[in-house]
């Protein structure tokens, strides 16, 4: 490729942004991110931002996750204002039934003991951390912009091809086609649909079901600690497992409650199920009383970017010469965003990725 080549990236989430950040860091600056709503307007701005160094070790994600955890630490050193903090992480079992306090003393000061049946340290602050996904996306995009990357708030609705090459993109707010030399599709849960529609020759299997997850942001009246909690809450009808992450600004993020409502075309049309958000607040209240009485700052929902085999898809779209894709990061997109972006940048600029081996995530595996 030539240094003057125009790279178009569809998607202003963590994956598209990280790719632009590392491409521009490696010296390529003729890049435009096309984002239909706004930077980090979907999952990448609504995620918890929990990071774990070793939790993917028993899976195919090991190399990517370890490399990305290390990149997050690099980013934290470079940009101290990211709200990145190293945290201890606990499992907290709770029950609707009041427990006998004498049996269940918890080391976490802000956790209520009256409904806690057990606590277990899952990992220490040497290996788990919490970052603000929105701040991270905003920081990476502002640095990328300072290196020449452009952001176009527009939806890509069509591609023009010639001889196996994508040559132009058509934007929803423009009647002209925009020329591109390389296209990267990093459109989160919309990627599969986009690829099916515009590259039908590559028969990418659809993800099993588009998973929607709810989250709430609470502002408790009393202060909480820094520990991240994976709660197992037993009710009369079964067990639910919300995740509770204190945020540096004094709020607490709680997520869980998944369902399978059809993905709308526009992220701004995603409406959370308010009752599911209320359930999250009530469940979290069994772990810490201050959460059930907290001010509710946000109720929201967003979709996980899935894939047919629940692994990321990173690499060149088969049958195409200049189209790349990066999606399918499910619950670990914030963790794995930086390494995905860096590997993709290296693949495109140098033909191979030095940061880690992304061959297991190649789109070729579905052929
Ligand atoms: C509730 C919840 C909590 C989570 N917590 C964590 C966590 O703690 N740690 C972690 O590592 N991960 C977490 N995740 C996962 C993480 O949020 C995602 O994996 C990640 O944000 C996906 O990033 P993305 O860039 O692929 O997609 P997105 O953030 O969805 O970005 C894709 C963008 O593409 C744009 N787009 C789509 N089509 C077009 C088009 N045609 N033209 C222009 N733009 C287009 C969309 O508007 C969107 O902004 C969580 C996810 C959820 C749902």
Write the layout of secondary structure elements.
Elements: E1 7-10, H1 14-25, E2 31-35, H2 43-46, E3 50-52, H3 62-78, E4 85-86, E5 89-95, E6 116-123, E7 128-130, H4 133-146, E8 150-153, E9 156-162, E10 165-171, E11 177-179, E12 182-185, H5 191-198, E13 212-219, E14 228-235, E15 238-240, E16 243-246, E17 252-259, H6 274-287, H7 289-292, E18 295-303, E19 313-316, E20 323-327, H8 333-350
Parallel strand pairs: 1-2, 1-12, 2-8, 5-14, 12-20
Antiparallel strand pairs: 3-7, 4-7, 5-6, 9-10, 10-11, 13-17, 13-18, 14-15, 14-16, 16-17, 19-20
Helix pairs in contact: 1-4, 1-8, 3-8
Bound molecules: flavin-adenine dinucleotide.
> Which ligands accompany this protein?
flavin-adenine dinucleotide
| Whole-number tally of structural domains | 2
In terms of DSSP E residues, the strand content is 25-35%
Please report the total strand number as a whole number: 20
Report the span from N to C terminus: 26 Å
Mean pLDDT figure: 95
Q: Unreliable segments (pLDDT under 50, ≥5 consecutive)? A: none
Q: With helices defined by DSSP (H or I, 4 residues minimum), what is the helix count?
A: 8
Listing every helix as H and every strand as E from the N terminus to the C terminus, the arrangement reads EHEHEHEEEEHEEEEEHEEEEEHHEEEH
What is the overall silhouette? elongated
* Backbone CA Rg: 21 Å
Topology-level CATH name of the largest domain: FAD/NAD(P)-binding domain
Helix content: 10-25%
Largest sheet, described in full? Answer: 8 strands, mixed
CATH class of the largest domain: Alpha Beta
CATH homologous superfamily placement of the largest domain: FAD/NAD(P)-binding domain
Structural class: alpha+beta
CATH architecture of the largest domain: 3-Layer(bba) Sandwich
